[in-house]
Amino acid sequence: MTKPIIPIDPKGLDDVADALLKGETIPGTDDRKPSPARIKNPNTYLILPGKIHGSYSYPDLLVPTSRTHLNENWDQCFQGVVQEGSLMLTPRQYADFLAYLKGGRVYDGSGSRVDSGKITAILDDILTVRSPYRAEWLDAKFSKGEIPVVRETWNITYHKIKSDGTLEKVTEPLQECLRDNKLPGIDLDYWLGHATQQGLPPKNNSSGNVYYWHPKDGAVAGFVANSGGARLDCDGDPTGSDAGLGVRAAKIKR
């Protein structure tokens, strides 16, 4: 499994330490030309460089340029991608993926630089307010708990990638994030640049045009765009399905 490369040159260690403290990409990992992936049809995938966000990290991923498993509910999608040796992107990975696309320096699975026209087309499919309906599930479920007499608590459940490449289901307290619906919404770039370790908008997210529905008990996460707007949806019904709703079945780059 390819992991982010930490420089061993002592001159670079201060930069690495700063990046770890700030939850940023390890210096140099976004600038390097990636090696080709050992996968069929590598040009249908984009290489998302591995990231470290506080205590959370993931290795280099291969994210498909299009959605699959259309017209399936959340559980069907998740089970389907796992059975084929893939994974569903978490909100944190998805925010990094959008930021990567918007940055413009993107490589496909063969290690070739992706031309700007293709990047624009992918972003248009994800973000542009127009018909038809396009949406994708994300790997996050939300639940409410209570600590008696103390306070109401909220949890997020998602899957971490272990060092051996397998997925580990984790449930942890929901970090401080924006807990109100924002209509019309949040600023996309501010969210992508300041997302929490779990990938959600921060409490002080600037206002913008991306609608936001905050986490609710029993709901799942997803991203949607149609003629009515684009939105980050954290109160999705996991039993729902639609012909335009699917998932990006990502893989660990090997």
In brief:
The chain has 5 helices and 14 strands.
Describe the protein in words.
- The protein has 254 residues and is of the alpha+beta class.
- It folds into two domains: 10-131 and 248-252, no CATH class; 134-245, no CATH class.
- The protein has five helices and 14 strands.
- It has helices spanning 13-22, 74-83, 91-103, 116-127, 188-194, and strands spanning 45-48, 51-53, 56-58, 61-64, 87-88, 134-147, 151-161, 167-173, 182-186, 210-213, 220-226, 229-236, 245-246, 249-252.
- Strands 6, 7, 8, 9, 10, 11, 12 and 13 form an eight-stranded mixed β-sheet that branches. A four-stranded antiparallel β-sheet has the order 1-4-14-5, sandwiched between helices. A two-stranded antiparallel sheet has the order 2-3.
- The longest helix is centred in the middle third of the chain and has 13 residues, at 91-103.
- Mean pLDDT is 89; it is low at 1-23.
Straight-line N-to-C gap: 5 Å
State the share of residues found in helices, binned by percent: 10-25%
- Shape annotation: globular
Contiguous uncertain segments of 5+ residues: 1-23
Strand content: 25-35%
Number of helices: 5
Mean pLDDT: 89
Class by helix and strand content? alpha+beta
Radius of gyration: 18 Å
What string, H for helix and E for strand, traces the elements in order?
HEEEEHEHHEEEEHEEEEE
Q: In total, how many domains does the architecture comprise?
A: 2
Largest sheet: 8 strands, mixed
Number of strands: 14
